[in-house]
């Protein structure tokens, strides 16, 4: 099988970019990635990751629009959609295009623009991922599913709301040093958990999850250039190798899972990626995990084999997941603080893996001498998950 | 006494004695302490400077809120609005957010505007809550008339407090549909939405004595004072 | 989505008896197909085809987890709504509205079907979980 690597990365600021056109935001990230790779053309295939342009921007065919504004015609172009895991799925498709021999150089760009509508409408937009008959009409949202999951997890393992806040504090601290992060503002345990004002300042969104336990609604885009490793020498920078990719699905309806706390698709996706990479969880130097809700950072870390079930919080309390810790998690600030433009998140995670493996991360959040990075991108409430492992060559 | 002064005194509205808003502080998510206190008339020119850069920012309806807020405070400063008040939220003296309103009579309050400079810490929500606290708990009023001029405002006030529509009454801000906060609604929402500690420790209160202009505005990227 | 007969149904596979909610297009246990109730292709009633049996979701159930959601999506004007995930005695699980004062994981509940949403004048019925 052909080996594939990443040779260029680009990212926009995450936050409120509603003054710009979605395709322009994506083009900006794409050009940054191409510049980083040292090319201004020669792209065989463009893969675009996006969840909701049709609904949010009332625009379809963004893959063709992007190719055109980038002057990349007649490159092949496709749109890949997999909810909040659209980015990683587009990355996977790009990888497959090169492995198959249909392309040698692929540009994968993912973006989303959620701030042109109100938060109220954005909540509804994301909720359309749920079952249209037995979930959505009730007013159930992704935060509600995450909250019910959290409640069951707390009942089983004794986790507390205060412990969840520890994850938020760590993520905000990392995001403060990430120039692309949506929220560059540290939060403290006093502010979000311990002060007598905390229950108002950090009010419930969906009990037991509070405002600072959840990601903000963001706009943004990220992009990578990938190529066949045998042709990587002509690019400006050394490639970062794609060591393993895995993805898996689970029941659409959350209630149909045998164990409501079992995130089977996460486990299966990670197992497939480990197998392809020929490594195991203990070989991973750091990870970007899909913490749209901080509970997911905890549970994803357990499902991918870093910790036993119910035990991840102990490692977090000991500081093991901080940038300077044994196994840094979300050195970018995670979805929690870096932001979550849904379709863009997967590529943003890959961007962070490459940056860290190259040793290019900003001061104070560079992981020490990493070998392997793992990203988990979580679609739906765990019904379509992609895991990616990148390796330093 | 000259004639101009006499005429000026004829133009000025009578002012009601208003119980002052007792200062409080709130620990924000960042751990920073925001002092909320009442603004003195002589501080208004500085607040006008705080508002001015936002008057032409269309995004999130800052233009409407800023232009109107500016006019309301100018009217307050130059004695052209009756029984108006303004509250300010500061962190280390820097103005983070402001809100204002006025008394129609002893029982009825008229909420004007709430504006946040510093974002991401829900300062605006705390200022609006402080304003409602002033009307209902301090001034002991029965009702407050409220309008929203942006979708964010609608969510924050109408939905958050479950305000009741009373579209046939006229709010002073023009034609936007009027909603009402009653005492019952306020006390039902209080536990979730209103917080703060009194009295403010002396040293902390003193940080708010001299208001400081914000250096930059997240709403205007790249702008610096 | 808009149920006129005010019932919410589970579907039983006529071949192996497996219950499903919501209705699948094939049995998750034995793979037996379910054809739509209305004809969508000519001669869809294959020879020997047995229709799936509809069973209303009713009776008592157990609360598995729950939440109070304060940020509702557009279309809902309530300040908050309570939701629960339950398991019925026949093993079927479902999400729905929760209408109890002090919910507790493991508590016994009853189900009823009531209006959950009005959407442009159309009434939408769904599951509500209440004290027995
Ligand atoms: Zn069957």
Q: Give the CATH topology of the domain at 4-117 and 221-234 in chain A.
A: Peroxisomal Thiolase, Chain A, domain 1
Ends distance of chain A: 17 Å
Radius of gyration of chain B: 17 Å
Low-confidence stretches of chain A: none
**Overall 3D form of chain A:** globular
CATH class descriptor of the domain at 4-117 and 221-234 in chain A? Alpha Beta
Number of domains of chain B: 1
Portion of residues within helices of chain A: 25-40%
Poorly predicted runs of chain B: none
The most extensive interface, with participating residues per chain, is: A-C, 37 and 32 residues
Count of DSSP H/I helices of chain B:
7
**What is the CATH architecture annotation of chain B?**
3-Layer(aba) Sandwich
Nearest-integer average pLDDT of chain A: 97
Report the strand count of chain A.
11
Strand line-up in the sheet with most strands of chain B:
1-2-3-4-5-6-8-7
Structural class of chain A: alpha/beta
The number of strands of chain B is 8
Helix proportion range of chain B? 25-40%
**CATH uppermost class of chain B:** Alpha Beta
SSE order of chain A, as H and E?
EHEHHEHEHHHHHEEEEHEHHHHEE
Q: Can you characterise this structure?
A:
The complex is a heterotrimer of chains A (about 400), B (about 220) and C (about 130). Helices cover about 35% and strands about 20% of the residues of chain A. Chain A has helices at about 20-35, 55, 60-70, 85-100, 120-125, 140-155, 160-175, 190-195, 200, 265-275, 295-305, 310-315, 335-340, 345-360; strands spanning about 5-10, 45-50, 75-80, 105-110, 205, 210, 220-230, 240-250, 285-290, 370-380, 385-390. In chain A, helix 1 (about 20-35) crosses helix 3 (about 60-70) and helix 7 (about 160-175) crosses helix 11. Chain B is of the alpha+beta class and about 220 residues long. Chain B has a single domain (about 15-205), classed as Gcn5-related N-acetyltransferase (GNAT) (Aminopeptidase, 3-Layer(aba) Sandwich), CATH 3.40.630.30. The model of chain B has no long low-confidence stretch (mean pLDDT about 95). The mean pLDDT of chain C is about 90. The relative contact order of chain C is 0.21. Chain C starts with 8 loop residues before the first strand and ends with a strand. Chain C is mainly beta. Chain C has two domains: about 10-50, no CATH class; about 60-130. Chain C has no helices and eight strands. The interface of A and C includes residues 123, 205 and 256 of A. Zinc ion (ZN) binds near residues 13, 16 and 29 of chain C. Zinc ion (ZN) binds near residues 16, 18, 29 and 30 of chain C.
